Amino acid sequence: xxxxAPPKKPQINTALPGPLGQKIVEADAQFxxxxxxxxxxxxxxxxxxxxxxxxxxxxxxxxxxxGVAVCSTGHCHPEVVSAIQEQTAKLxxxxxxxxxxxxxPDLARKLDEIVPIKAPTRTHFAxxxxxxxxxxxxxxMHATGREKFIAFFNSFHGRTLGxxxxxxxxxxxxxxxxxxxxxVTHVPYAYCLRCPFNLGRCDDNSCCLGSIDWIENRLxxxxxxxxxxxxxxxxxxxxxxxxxxxxxxxxxGLRRICxxxxxLLIVDEVQSGMGRTGKMFxxxxxxxxxxxxxxxxxxxxxxxxxxxxxxADLMDWKPGAxxxxxxxxxxCIAAALKTIELLERELIANxxxxxxxxxxxxxxxxxxxxxxxxxxxxxxxxGVEFVESKKxxxxxxxxxxxxxxxxxxxxxxxxxxxxxxxxxxxxxILTRENVDVGLxxxxxxxxxxxx
Length: 451
Ligand SMILES: Cc1ncc(COP(=O)(O)O)c(C=O)c1O
What we know:
This protein is α/β, with parallel strands linked by helices and about 450 residues long. It has two domains: about 20-80 and about 345-450, Aspartate Aminotransferase, domain 1 (Alpha-Beta Complex); about 95-330, Aspartate Aminotransferase, domain 2 (3-Layer(aba) Sandwich), CATH 3.40.640. The protein has eleven helices and 17 strands. Strand 5 (about 150), helix 6 (about 160-165) and strand 6 form a beta-alpha-beta unit. The longest helix is centred in the C-terminal third of the chain and has 39 residues, at about 330-370. The site of pyridoxal-5'-phosphate has 14 residues, from helix 5.
C-alpha cells in the first residue's frame, strides 16, 4: 500500500477524460459491447485507495458511488488486499461443485449467523447479483412446485433472462428481448412521494397499502390464483429504481400475504445489504424476515461473489439441480469473510453515523435549493430527487444528468438512479471530512447547473 497521505480534496488537472483516458475510451468503443449503460461522463480508472480514485491521467476523484455500491470497505482496503493475496498464494480455484474446501462452509456458516432468518439456513454461492436471483427463482419454483412470481415496477434484479423477467426499472433493459422468460406480474411499489394510486402523500403510511390491496383484491381475484404464486421478490430500498425506501407497512403486508398463501418472500439485498443502510441488511430496519435473501455487490469488496441464502428446509433439492463452476471461489470468499469482519468491527456503525451526517447535510441543501424535491434513504444509501420546483414537483431528469456530469468535472463521483435521482452510495469508510468536501462540491454544482 502507498504510504503517501491521502488527498483531502479532488484534484483535476486535465480535460476529462484526459489524453490517455481518451485513447482507452476510443479502444473501448471499438472492441467492447455498447450495451453497458454508461453515464455521459467518462471515468477511466487506473488505481484507487480508500475513497479516492485516480484516473489514467492522474486526476483524483472523491468516490461517492463505490463502483456502484460495491467497494463497501473502500478501494483496496489493506486487510482485504492481504486476505486476497494470502489466499491466492494457497488455492485460487478448485470448483466447489465437485470438490470441497473449507472456505465454502466458513462463509455459509457466517451468513447463517448474520442473515435475519431465524430458522437454520443454507447458502448457494454465485458470482454476481443476477445469479443469486436466478438461484432464488429456481429454488422458489422447486420448493413450492409453483411458477408464477410477483415483482414491482421500478425494481432491478439483474439482466439474465430469469432476473430480467423481474427487472422493470427502464424499458432499455427490456427492448428487443421479446416476451418475459418467466411468468412475472408487476405491481406498483409503495413510492410514497409519487403515490402510484394517487392517494397523495400520507403521514400515517396507510396509503402504501394500495399495493397490498392491489395484490390481494385485484391480482389474486383476476389473473393470478395465489396458490400458483411461488414467490414475491422485493427490494426493501429500491436501488436502480431511484433509492426509494419502502414503508414498513408495505413490507409487513407482503410478509402477511406470503404467510397466508404459502408464497415465499424473496428479499433482494444485492444493493441494500452488507451494511449499506446502517444495518447489515435493510430488512432489519423493517423487522422483516425473508424466506430467501439474495446478496452480492458489497459482500466481496470488489471481488465477484453472490449468495442466495435460504431457509434450510427449502433447500432440499438434489445434486445437479443448481451449481456454478466459479461460484464461491476461495479467493472471493476470503475477501467476503474479511469484508464481513470489517463491517462488524466498525463499518456498519460508520454507515449509520456518517450516513446520517451526510443525509442531514443533503437535507440542508434541499432547503436551500428549490430543485431538490426529496432527500431520503438509510445509512449510506441516500437518494436526492431533482424536480423543476418544489411547487410542481415535476421530475427534472435533464437537470439531474447535468448535475451528475458537472460533479464529475469537479472531481466528485456520484451516479444517477431512477429517472431524476442522484444516488449517494459511498464506500462505508467515508468520513465527516469527506462528506463536507462532497457536499461543498454538490452545493456549488447545483447552483452553477441552474444557470
Ligand atoms: C437489487 C439488485 N439486484 C440484483 C442486481 C444485479 O446484480 P449484478 O449486476 O451483479 O448481476 C443489482 C445490480 O445493480 C441490484 O441492484
